[in-house]
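Quick one, T. Sequence first:
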Amino acid sequence: MGCAEACLMFTGMGQKFMIATDGEHKVAIARIIRTILWFKYRDQFKARLLKEIQNKANNLQAKNINMAFRPNVFSEVKFEKMFSEMFDLCKELNIQVYDYVKDIKRIVENPYKDFYNMTFSLSENNALFIPTALKHGSNIAVVTDIPTNKAKDKKSYLYSVPNKLSIEGIELDTIDGDSHDARYLDGKKNCFVILRGKGQTIKSDTTNFMRKVF
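Structure tokens:
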């Protein structure tokens, strides 16, 4: 629950204060609509997404740009089991797919390991599966209390991530996960991917979802 309460719905462009002049929260409404489409009108959802993937791939190919795609951003839908057509299309178009995943079974049973990169997302209650995730080649994403303050150049962060981190007795090298989001490009394996907690609600997290390392 820690991630759902502190790190999902009201983050990014969906933060609580981002209300339109008409009093509506457009981003939150759009997220809810897409969720309803998936659960109530799945065929239409699938057709729309496949078309959008194809169109985007065509556009980027014309510019000689490689495409990557993250199916889950604010959800953990098992698309690999429920939407095989999407992966068939991505494989055909040579599209890299990636996700942050809390369900360790998805990592263990991932049928598309050659082009579907999964990073194990640490929550307040799944740390016991860290060894399993590492065994299957996944790095571990950890949300921390390291401040998000930017340096004078407005690009780099003022506070760096530690070189190593220990969680539940497991010490690993780290990667600054805020340097980019394309986890499939991380050159290092067997690492904790350190993320700075973002959004307004995460500051009051009491579930131990956000790890205190600062």
